[in-house]
Write a structure and sequence with these properties.
The chain is mostly helical and about 450 residues long. It is about 65% helix and about 5% strand.
Amino acid sequence: MATVLTVPAVTPDAPGSHDAPDVRDWARRAGALSPVLAVIALLLVPGGGGAQGGTGGTGTVADAASGLLVLVCLVRVLRGGARPLTRTAAVVLGLPVLGICLAAITSNDPAASLPGVARYLQIFVLVPAAVLLMIRDRRDFAVVAWGLVGLALLQGAVGVGQYLTGTGASYQGEDVRAVGTFGATDVMGMATVVSYGLVVVTGIALGSRAGRARTAALCCAVLLSVPLVLSFSRGAWIATVLACGAQLLLSGPRRAVRVALAAGALGVVLVGGLGVGSAMVQERVTSITRVAAAPDQSVTDRYTMWAAAGRMWRTEPVTGIGLKGFPAYRDSNASLALSSGSDTAGAGAAFQRQPLLSPHNMYLLVLSEQGLFGLLALAGGWVALLVLGLRRWRLGPDRALVATGLLGWQLVDFFYADIGGPSTVLMSVVLGLAAWWALAGVRRA
């Protein structure tokens, strides 16, 4: 007889279920989800590995917690005795393994590629699968989603304090860049966390009925907008605007117009009225439109590394040069326009040159190191999650907006960033949330 599939079911909401949560029930669920919530909470620990690009930046306490999460999930699966994933879930989550292993086997230096294999499996396969299996129903999903919001609020508060007291990372000669507890070597860390939180509360506000959940989400959205602006991260701004814009359009054109006007008014008040980093923010926004005509050195470096990644791919178009191969082949493929590194300082750290070890574009990093086969395997899984998630829209608009919004944000951000740094492990939790919504068994009322 065929084995019963035990992936948790997605059920439609009961009326008013978002507005009258049982505190004891939420506490019990938080206890059951403690391995997942520990990964999120431990990202508040300062420092821990820097922001090395590519497959670097491992060894943080949050990474250790993610390993414990996978172990706990494995024990639960073995004790359950049933196949934990549907065939579709197994294929979508297991697809990246093919490209990762093939790139490692065909690498010019297989031994050097082994740490990359472990890192890719951790971030894109094992932790997302563990999060998928740990979440049992819609309320578990809500607990983890609000956990992301809590982390974003705390990191954002630290970042705003850094801006106000001049203790942030160095930006244009002043220590005002909000980076949270991630430090000057991972300036994208806080911006990523805050963006995740903002996308979550936007999805909840747009998909929930009027009540305490929507009110709390709207308040959190306003609060999180401030540290996101003060992060001075162009990539995070672009990804957040596009992800939240897509959420708005999915929730209805009329609402999209109203909210867009409100968001514009809020931006005028924050930047124009209250002067939240006004001059620097305006200069940073303007620089987005100058990336082709008069790019600054950081943009020039990025273009140069993108071109280098393309040259690496053309040497090994199918399987790539091998995991963790980009730094070794960078200088032989990059033009003289590439600088020796980026300057980092502030937030409690002394001045140092941060080496450029990746193209800061996930798609080009995978293409250069894993070839076309690896990119199709990895990105194909992400596209499948997005399509399957959108197909389940009517089963719960709030969770659909949260899950697809988070995944959409990540897919856009991958054009400007890749894996590396302490915040990378949070990406795997986000992918797990998206995977639960897209791949969990559906039981219709």
